[in-house]
Protein: Histidine phosphatase family protein
Organism: Streptomyces boluensis
Amino acid sequence: MNASGGRGRRVILWRHGQTAWNLERRFQGSTDIELTDEGVAQARRAARLLASLKPDAIVASDLKRAAATAAELASLTALDITHDEGLRETYAGHWQGLTHDEIIAQYGEQYAAWKRGEPVRRGGGELETEVAERAAPVVLGHADKLPDGGTLVVVSHGGTIRTTIGRLLGLESHHWESLGGLSNCCWSVLGEGARGWRLLEHNAGTLPEPVLGDDD
């Protein structure tokens, strides 16, 4: 699924700001949770840095936490935001709304199998490969519209970003866990070379922050 090489495009995959459920280590999945005041402040700080990279386009998940994060960058760049439900976080069924400890207690073997890289429908929800199959084409479709040397900002969620990066880099799905998670309002950068996409930065941001949330 790599893009044809040579155009020098760049994709910045930006995780949304902090939510109350992130702080509680409560699995959000596709539940539509808003940013905290700190999450809004994180988005504003990060947006100033990302605006300096002069993005050409912004596409975001339609969930409130991602849409509000994207809005901070849009206000600085005057770019329109395209919202796409294909960029939503992994639907995780019965896991959604549970804390990390509750998931371990109730679905310990399922959690362990997922961490081992096995294909698991967490809580009866989506496989990671299914998330990549819906999200990666959205990213590639918008990247294909960029001018040569252009930059796309994708505002999404920790799990969706990780699986999308894995797919765009051509990694086998059982290796996606090795990419690690993104902290709130941090981002990863993919650059286009002659042989496709490559990872230029991962979990970049202003200061090191713990990874809190769905994909740690």
